[in-house]
Amino acid sequence: MAPDDDGAGDSRGRVVVIGSLNVDSTSYVAAFPTPGETIRAHGFQVALGGKGANQAVAAHVAGVPVEFVACIGDDASGAFACDTLERLGLPTDAIQRSPDAPTGVAQITVADSGENTVIVTGGANLALTPAVVDAARERVAAATVVLTQGELPAATIDRLAAVATELGTRFVLNLAPPAPVSAATLGAADPLVLNEHEARAVGIGTDAPAGTTLDEWRALAASAAGGIARSVVVTLGAAGAVAADARGSWVVAAPQVTAVDTTGAGDGFTGTLAACIAEGRPLPEALAIAVAAGALAVQVRGTVDSYSPRAVVLAEAGVAD
User: How far apart are CA 222 and CA 242, in angstroms?
Assistant: First the structure.
């Protein structure tokens, strides 16, 4: 499934991402501080972030046409974000500017273990109201897949699910972080993409103990597919991921790699998954490609700049273009 050269071919589908955009301030440390402790960082980086922006970039790098609907402040951080998106080749015409709120910010700490902590201040992202979804109706109608995340207000996510369902556009929901969306919204998700914590928050694997195996999570996902959501994907970090829909359920183990920064790896997975679905790949193949994308991302510091090109990801997954 090679991309069309003009970037507008139907053979690849089209992804519309309605989601959050932040500017990440990341400190790299030997280990996380304990409460009340002051430590020194051995590195610092300012970069584009936010689950919406990360996933839009990942889908774009995966080789499908992407439109990104977001909101930024009328400030230097917003200008930096737009400059970065343009450098990466994403259109910015659907990004609104709010004069009343700053661009969203994420304060991130990454330990030498590769693990991270994240504190998000929503800022202008909170201006993404249901009215923004209504204004983007034509974009959603023209898309193969519409993708959003739990960083938006729940009412906005609910509205997007309803509009996508009405228009017949496939709705992919990454409920990260968990948001109090309606049962109808969860039910429309195809797939609903979750990590272990998020899965438990919506009633999947609530009693699953630590150390639950990939195959056990596959069975849990299968029990929720067609009920809680049309299809379900659960990411399990270094172990891999599972997926299930009405046709079956699948496990993809992650390759063993040395993680240097897990920040944004889940978004790389989700954006790649949405891109693969948009270009018509079946869910098990899309899952394998997305796991490869996530494994490659954790081996590089940063968020959007850690996403590998399409050819590299497909080769890692052992999948033909």
Answer: 9
List the one residue out of 283, 272, 277, 267 whose CA is nearest residue 232: 283
The beta strands (E) that lie in the chain are given as: 15-18, 22-29, 43-49, 66-73, 95-98, 104-111, 116-121, 145-149, 170-174, 192-195, 232-235, 240-245, 248-253
| pTM beyond cutoff 0.70 | yes
267 is catalytic: yes
268 contacts 275 by C-beta, under 8 angstroms: no
Q: Give the active site residue among 24, 75, 245, 267.
A: 267
Element containing residue 179 per DSSP (H, E) = none
| Dist. CA 89–CA 83, nearest whole Å | 10
Spatial strand order in the sheet of 240-245: 95-98, 66-73, 15-18, 145-149, 170-174, 192-195, 232-235, 240-245, 248-253
Count of Cβ atoms closer than 10 Å to residue 305 Cβ: 15
Domains present along the chain, CATH in parentheses: 10-20+51-104+125-317 (3.40.1190.20)
Q: What is the pLDDT of residues 156-186, one digit of tens each?
A: 999 999 999 999 999 999 999 999 999 999 9
The two tokens of residue 25 are: 């301030």
| DSSP-derived secondary structure letter, 150 | T
- Band (pLDDT 50/70/90 cuts) for residue 262 is confident
Binning pLDDT at 50, 70 and 90, where does residue 5 land? very low
Over residues 138-155, mean pLDDT: 96
